[in-house]
């Protein structure tokens, strides 16, 4: 059973889907030096607005955009949901903690009594905890469409987006749903995320330069991508436009604390994806790489591509334009793959100046008709996810 994509909702620091795609093709970047928190240094960030976004409002915007793009109207009671986020509502949790608790590390942490309300702080008793749990993106989408179908909220670090699309596809292929809204949304610009990545030495100081010899590290970005998935039969019966077909996926885990893909497990994910998709490496015209601009990831990923694919396959990472949206990055990468299939243009590797590896990286928007594309996502903890999309015969 073919699973096709009939709608895309996307927002990045470059704007919504059409704005972001046009910006990437023009090699523009939405990354700018920002200091959203006075107590932390200035960093290059991919913020959508002047201040960090909130998960639920951003999710609602993106989901509604996907529904509109698919020419659908709510309610959609039989539509499944598979939307994930690796950070969830972390920014709200951080605000609760810093507003109510004394975090002097030299003393034991003392929690206020259940009815204690501290002056001039956020009242924790006034918060609806059900609205700030990790699955909030999926819940927000389910409420918009008023569904009674399965609602899933995958979480797999930076590979979350592809995991979610894979789970959405499975709901259709197993016959549980004929239509699913799937993807991921992330609002990762928080004090803890910035401080944590900085402590690891993973944050860039000036910008994001994937596969560049002078790459500095990752740049956090906000955004997400959500897709309307349908059976090909349902899509054609209603005359829907089709961006492409979800041909297959491969999901593996290194079961370790690695921060970069290992050759064995990530290679298995790629080979599994190709096998499920009935494709060979020579069938792939474009690869959207994970391309985080960190020393380790880009090196491992380049070696992986060199090992499994011929030199002619076109490769790029768009994180130099949008920043690294963590759990949403794979979903956004899938969106760029679908746009490449539909438009006949391959997106450039924005930010690349001097290539550090012997791979065929797209430096400027390149007109090239392709039939199949792969999207890679490799997350902390050894989460590996690969998704194949291809052209649909309408």
UniProtKB/TrEMBL annotation:
GO BP terms in the entry: fatty acid biosynthetic process
Domain of life assignment: Bacteria
Pfam family name, one: Ketoacyl-synt_C
MF-aspect GO terms: 3-oxoacyl-[acyl-carrier-protein] synthase activity
InterPro entries attached to this UniProt entry: Beta-ketoacyl_synthase (IPR000794), Ketoacyl_synth_C (IPR014031), Ketoacyl_synth_N (IPR014030), PKS_Beta-ketoAc_synthase_dom (IPR020841), Thiolase-like (IPR016039)
Record-linked NCBIfam families: PRK05952.1
Family indicated by similarity: Belongs to the thiolase-like superfamily. Beta-ketoacyl-ACP synthases family.
Name of this protein: 3-oxoacyl-(Acyl-carrier-protein) synthase
């Amino acid at each position: 059973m073919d699973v096709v994509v009939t709608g895309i909702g996307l927002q990045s620091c470059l704007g919504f889907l059409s704005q972001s795609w046009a910006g990437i093709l023009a090699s523009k970047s939405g990354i700018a030096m920002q200091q959203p928190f006075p107590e932390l240094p200035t960093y290059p960030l991919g913020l959508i607005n002047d201040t960090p976004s909130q998960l639920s409002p951003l999710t609602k915007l993106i989901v509604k955009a996907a529904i509109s793009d698919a020419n659908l109207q709510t309610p959609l009671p039989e539509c499944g949901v598979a939307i994930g986020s690796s950070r969830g509502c972390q920014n709200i949790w951080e605000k609760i903690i810093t507003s109510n608790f004394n975090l002097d590390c030299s003393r034991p942490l003392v929690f206020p009594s259940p009815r204690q309300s501290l002056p001039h702080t956020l009242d924790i008793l006034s918060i609806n905890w059900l609205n700030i749990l990790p699955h909030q993106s999926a819940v927000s989408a389910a409420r918009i469409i008023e569904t009674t179908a399965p609602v899933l909220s995958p979480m797999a670090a930076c590979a979350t987006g592809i995991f979610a699309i894979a789970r959405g596809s499975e709901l259709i292929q197993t016959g549980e749903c004929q239509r699913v809204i799937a993807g991921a949304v992330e609002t990762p610009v928080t004090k803890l995320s910035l401080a944590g990545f900085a402590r690891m030495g993973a944050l860039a100081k000036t910008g994001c330069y994937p596969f560049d010899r002078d790459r500095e590290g990752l740049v956090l970005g906000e955004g997400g991508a959500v897709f309307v998935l349908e059976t090909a039969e349902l899509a054609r019966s209603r005359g829907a436009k089709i961006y492409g077909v979800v041909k297959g996926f491969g999901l593996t885990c290194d079961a370790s604390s690695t921060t970069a893909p290992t050759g064995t497990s990530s290679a298995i994910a790629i080979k599994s994806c190709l096998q499920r998709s009935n494709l060979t490496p020579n069938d792939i015209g474009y690869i959207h790489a994970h391309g985080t601009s960190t020393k380790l990831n880009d090196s491992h990923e380049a070696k992986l591509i060199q090992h499994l694919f011929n030199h002619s396959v076109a490769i790029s990472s768009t994180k130099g334009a949008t920043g690294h949206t963590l759990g949403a990055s794979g979903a956004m990468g899938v969106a760029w793959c679908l746009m490449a299939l539909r438009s006949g243009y391959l997106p450039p590797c924005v930010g690349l100046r001097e290539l550090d590896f012997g791979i065929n990286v797209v430096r400027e928007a390149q007109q090239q008709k392709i039939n199949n594309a792969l999207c890679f996502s490799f997350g902390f903890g050894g989460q590996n996810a690969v998704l194949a999309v291809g052209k649909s015969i309408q």
